[in-house]
Amino acid sequence: MPFQITVDCEVNGERIIRTLPATMLLSEFLRQELGLTGTKLGCNKGSCGACTVLLDGKPVNSCLIFMPQVHKHTVVTIEGLGKEGELTDLQKAFIEEGAVQCGFCTPGMVIVSEFLLRKNPCPTEEEIRDGIAGNLCRCTGYTKIIRAIQKAAKCRAEH
Ligand code: FES
Ligand code: FES
Fold it and tell me: Per the confidence metrics, is the pTM higher than 0.85?
């Protein structure tokens, strides 16, 4: 039986205490233990960004984080970004700008974009490209994603 550890963490505002195999990845924990399947698994080796979540407010590839690293830390997934049942302005902008095609990259893209806009509310196109550089999209050619991020930034600036 694999070595077990008890992890005490917060996920999307809820305190969670679980005893788990020490080798369990955060991506597995979110999807299999908590049923938070909005976090996608692409490459499973830190190259595609599909599994991105916020760990203490910073984007990480959850396929590279072992659960002991999450002990006493805070995780936010795509399910926890908006108020319950509501999309954020950024999520709405992704839909309105056609930045969601197959949707597989979208949760990770939205998470890194949210991080970017919190840090830099008026990013240039180059800064947006840099901000999403670790996240791959096979469908959109990135133009619509960039437009969606610019739209959300503009809305936030106006409010
Ligand atoms: S699935 Fe984690 S980076 Fe690709
Ligand atoms: S929308 Fe399909 S991978 Fe980005």
Answer: yes
